[in-house]
What does this fold into?
Amino acid sequence: MSSLNIPFWKHKKLTEMSTGEWESLCDGCAKCCLYRLEDEDTRDVYFTNVHCRLLDTRSGRCTDYQNRSVRVPDCVTITPEVLQDPYWLPRTCAYRLVAEGRDLPDWHPLISGDPETVVHAGQRVCNWTICEDDADELENHLVDWIE
It folds into this structure.
């Protein structure tokens, strides 16, 4: 079978993907835009329902993607280097799945062909979050519904 018949994420290394391919891995779930707390001893990650002020909650995308790291210094740009240890990303994150050699879920737009399947599958978190500007201490906003 030629690589033309195999989806790019199954036959290309992360470092070999074009910019378009790389960006298309993002499903718009917005889980990576949530603030998280980490136990430094165990590396356990605890998600909150508090999202970055740059998140467009209708689209699940950043409102200033090109400048996000400047405007939000804690924003982590996902790169192949970062994905060498993606433990902190949600288990459903396509970048993490591909880095770990696993396949994308059926609801991912690259599989379904429809960006709204993320919403229909209950994976876009925007409707259950609050903006960081409206939140108090992060410890008061821990959630257990992030996969």
The chain has six helices and five strands. The helical segments are 8-11, 19-24, 68-71, 94-99, 109-112, 117-120. Strands lie at 34-38, 45-51, 55-56, 61-62, 130-131. Residues 19-24 form the longest helix (6 residues).
